[in-house]
Amino acid sequence: MKIKKRMAHKLITIPPQAKVLDALNLLHQHSIRHLPVVDGETFVGFITEAEIRQVLLLPGGSDITVAEVMNKNPVTIGPEENLEEAARLIYHYKLSGIPVVDHGKLVGIITVGDILAAFIEIMGVLQASSRIDVVLGEQPEAFEKVSRIIKQKGGEIISVGMGNMPEKKKKFYFFRLKKCAVDPIAHALREHGYEVVSVIA
User: Fold this and answer.
1) Does 3.30.70.100 match the CATH number of domain 124-200?
2) Count of CB atoms within 10 A of residue 155's CB?
3) Which of 22, 41, 134, 156 lies at a CB distance of 3.0 to 4.6 Å from 178, suitable for a disulfide?
């Protein structure tokens, strides 16, 4: 999924010549934790609430401008990048949000909340669902066979993920299905020689 599909388009920004106290007030007013800094239409930096609070503890801190303390080289991402890349950057750099920049112009922002919402939607976690965990083994066609058995027994697959069983040194696939009777599916999979790890009706 592309960043541009999930990023926030309505942005609260601040110019670099503004005071840090104005930036803090803006953060509180809109209940946000970071501000992109924009000079005209050009993205020039990023500032967070934590950075502002540190500055305000200094003598004369309220007179310091955003330009003096903003991060001038923050991590950014393009609108055509994949959501997985944004998630990787946020995890690696311990960020709460990333400015989305296209040819020097700020076009959006993607946050941890946006990414989490997208993955929840993709995985179908909030839908009424059933789940079956299966060890597929080493056969290359196993995934297609298991998927076909599930469908033949009336299961409709919402999403598929992969997990590990460290104690058995095995990988398993978890199939999230639209709410259904999963016992007949599990029985059919076992009959075909697949190890069913767990079933959630």
Assistant:
1) no
2) 21
3) 156
